[in-house]
Amino acid sequence: MSITIKYFASLREQMGKAEQTLSADGVTTVADVVGKLADTDLPENTLVAVNQEYANDATQVKAGDEVAFFPPVTGG
Predict the structure, then answer these.
(1) pTM above 0.85, yes or no
(2) What does the pLDDT look like over 40-74, one tens digit per residue?
(3) What are the φ and ψ backbone dihedral angles of 59, each rounded to 5 degrees?
(4) Which CATH number fits domain 2-70: 3.40.50.720, 3.10.450.50, 3.40.50.620, 3.10.20.30?
(5) So where are the chain's domains?
(6) In 3-state terms, what secondary structure has residue 31?
(7) Angle at 57 between CA 23 and CA 55, to 5 degrees
(8) Which residues lie closer than 8 Å to 58 by C-beta, 6 or more apart?
(9) How far apart (Å, rounded) are the C-alpha atoms in residues 31 and 23?
(10) Is 30 left (phi over 0), alpha (psi -120 to 50) or beta?
(11) CB 28 within 8 A of CB 60
């Protein structure tokens, strides 16, 4: 099984793709997902959601989940 990775806003442009799949083997947390994306350079302040709910590095991830990365929203 796999995990769907989605990139939004400026991260989509930076990564050169909107979406990719990642093998779920050995992945149990968001931190594991980020570790498997070692060839990408996600900014430190990147926000993450798992199945459309805000998450952090310790959030559990399993096969079939969707993990989305997006830059923080700024403005006034």
Answers:
(1) yes
(2) 778 888 999 999 999 999 999 999 999 999 998 77
(3) -65, 135
(4) 3.10.20.30
(5) 2-70
(6) helix
(7) 95
(8) 29, 30, 31
(9) 14
(10) alpha
(11) yes
What tokens appear for 15 in the block? Answer: 């990564």
Sign of the dihedral through C-alpha 33, 9, 54, 64: negative
With a pLDDT cut of 90, the percent of the chain lying above it is 75
In the three-class reduction of DSSP (H, G, I as helix; E, B as strand; rest coil), residue 32 is classed as helix
Spatial separation of the C-alpha atoms in residues 32 and 14, rounded to whole Å: 21
Residue 39 has pLDDT above 80, yes or no: no
How many angstroms separate the CA atoms of 5 and 17, rounded?
A: 10
